Structures are given as C-alpha cells and as structure tokens.
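Researcher: Here's the sequence for the chain we discussed earlier.
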Amino acid sequence: MDSKKTDPAMTGENMKDHNVALPHSGSEEPAEVLDPPAYVYKSELTEFLWTLPQPIIALTMMSAVAIAITGGFMSPEALQGDADLLTGFLLFSPLFIILAAERIWTKKKGWLLNWRDYIEDAFWLFTAAYIWIPLITDYYSTPIEDAFGWVRDNSFIPVTLEASSVPGLILCAVIVQTTSEFLYYWIHRWSHSYMLLWRTHATHHHITKMSAMRSNRTHPTEFLALSFSTPVVLALFGASTEVIAVSAALGFINGWITHSNLPLRSGIWNWYFTSPEHHQLHHSHNFDDSNKNFGCGIIIWDKIFGTFSDSSHIERCGSGTGKQLSLYDQYMLMFYSNDRLKQL
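Model: Thanks. This is the structure I predict for it:
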C-alpha cells in the first residue's frame, strides 16, 4: 500500500521519529491497486482524442465570454442592467456538462459521487460563489481599494492589460493566469512545507474522490491566501474588467477540468497548462506524489522549479488516514492540534 500522507513539516529524519511508513523499496511486492481505472483506452487514437476536450472546452469558454464582451452582449444596456446573469451562465454552465460527462465517461468508478457527495459539493460551491469569491473580488474595489489603487498607479510594469478583440482578450487572460499562478505556486508549495500554512490547505487534500466541483472544496482562510495573488497581478498590470472576465473563465474551467473524474490525457495543451493527470497525482494519498505538480491551472512553474511529474498513476486520493471527513472536521482542521491533525 502507499505511504501514509502526514504532516508536511515531517520530512527526512523527522518522519522516522514519528514512525511514519516510508515508500516501499523496489525489492518489495508491487503495491496493490486499490481502484484501477474504469476507463480503458482501446487504441492510441482513443488516447489522442482524450487530449482534445480540455483545450476545446477552455478555448470555447474564453471565446464565448470574449465574444459576448466585444459584441456588446454583456453590457448593462443589452441585458437591461443584469449583465451578471449572462456572465454567471457562461461561467458555470460548463460545470454541469462536466459533471454529467463524469457519469458517462468515468476514469475511476470508485470516484463516482453519491447524492450526499453532490449535496456537500453544492454547499462548497455555493459558499465559494456567494461568499468567498465575491469577498476576494471586492478587494479590487472596496475593503482595500486605496491600496490596490496605489499599486496600480505606481506599477513599475509599463504594460496595461486591456484589449478590444477576442484574440487580445484571450492572450491577456493567459498572461494574468500565468503571472498570478507564479505567486499561487509558491503559496501552494509552502502550504505543503510549513504546518501553519498546511492547516489552511489540508481541507482541500482530504477529498477522497476526484470530481469537477471539488476544486471549490477550499477552507475560507485558504481562499483568502491563495486568491491574494490574482488581485495583486490585476493591480500591477492595470487589467481591464473585460480581461478580468475572460481570465475568470479560464481559471474556473481549468479548476473544474483538472479535478474531474474523466479519462482525459495530457497533450500539447498540457505542455503549458495543468492536466487532470497532473493534478490528480497532486491529490494522491502517496506523500511524495502529493508534493508534485502544485500548479492548478498552469504547470510551467512546476517544470521551471523542479516539482513537475508526468506520472499518471494514482492508486487513491486523500490525506492522513485516507478517510472522508465530516463537514465539521473540514472546517475545524485549521484549529485542531498537531496531534489531532495527524490522527485524521
């Protein structure tokens, strides 16, 4: 069986001191596959075809938002003051398509959700969409508007991210995602190295099944920490609201796809962007595998800083004992003692 994931601060000699099981050596029996893939690729052509949905969906979603913007369909005048309705539809409709696809083209049957899973995931999505994401978004205009305004006005970057064409908006969105993910990469990586930060991040790693909505299973304190990178980048580049909308489309769709229970394979798109295979490995219960592929949407920083793995093998996902935690425990992980955290 794989090694038990434990306190991220316990590495090397410290792991021995805490009697943590280390990975098996090559001389031992091969590890039992707890949940073999339910989907079998019948040919190389089939594998290639499964590299296409991710870039097609991502580009289509970004293009739809960009076309709506440049065509004036998302203006308050066009929607009688309710532009947010179309924005919400364009951003969230792919999620339900992906969830339906998981029931048809399933990568691992053991990851299929039951009705209780769907209800809990809906709760996390609802709180993210109506509490935490709006709170982060308001950073740009309300709680610390003056601070971000000062950053924007005194930015050392001589480029302003704004565009009036569909290709221009998509390019600007990719730049925003890439630069903001540089900051996110280091925050995420440090979260696996220091106990204080791991407390905010552990909730996300205690999922025992991969599915699209699980990208939103994030502790409120981590939402604040991880989302800090994007407002900083937006302020530095003076990004326009149009660029922000297209960037959000790319961020949402990447998060949903990389957490999905679909048999998607890594292709040319994933030389730069994170694939489900990359991110599923990061959610592995195996301690070493979980410390790879920190990029949720952009994988290039892992390649540059030496934390990339192209392995597509994952026996199971989860953390600690590998058991599903109650909703109460997922929220309270932040406040538990070190010993209590190691027992979950």
